[in-house]
Amino acid sequence: EAGNVVLLSPIGYSPTGEVFNLSAEEIATSTAVALGASKLILLMEQALHLAEGRALVQQITTGEAEAAMAATGSTISEAVLPHLRAACLACDSGVERAHLIDRHIDGSLLMELFTRDGVGTLISKTPYEATRPATSHDVTGILELIRPLEDSGILVQRSRERLETDIDDYVVTERDGLIVACAALHVYPNTDMGELACLAVQAGYRGAKRGERLLQHVEARARYLGIRQLFALTTRTSHWFRERGYLPLSKDALPAERRQSYSPGRNSMVLGKTLALPDGSDST
Q: Mean pLDDT over residues 191-218, rounded?
């Protein structure tokens, strides 16, 4: 409060006068928990990698970290383990997030704190990034995500009013408050068909299978709702859908309501997939 930097000594004393040399990780963790800190930041000699040659672990939950440390043949470096254990303990004790940062990266602390993806590893009890049903509060984020794709003709134009009306059809992937991906499942009454629509991933977050996970999420929901045939209209990504089991369909196979709103000018390809029943059998 006085604007001073507090330096905590590693020397501790027992009630009987014994002297202990405590580790910096123990002191930092106990202090963060006692203060009710929102973040614990630990600088390390190297970054966290779960396997030799693997990429930096950008985010991990305490449960995933504890499982990785306990796994037979774990390759987590001995130099990293004390910091990782401390971070998990802090988060399990009430600290919202812990950051593990390689101290050898110039400017790493500033980049970790002031960029969305940082340069270190974020640890938390719950996922930093999650896929969930959309709410009315997500409309602006979805519009910002899909607008560039609409402008380039990849997606059909959607108004705010249309999004607000259909918001219950949408699922989003949220990363630290930012909507980075979305998709919609439109159900057609009195049919066994559903439409996968508005599948979009923000440019800076492609290549990490977010679209794949959204597709699986929508397919699972469609099965739950009893949809037997899921279809999508696309102008540029037919190969992506084909690789995931979608086959070309005639426009005449679309539900009557969808045929009426089909835009010939976009020349969209229709692809469909017959979904397996919940017991694993095919619906055909």
A: 92
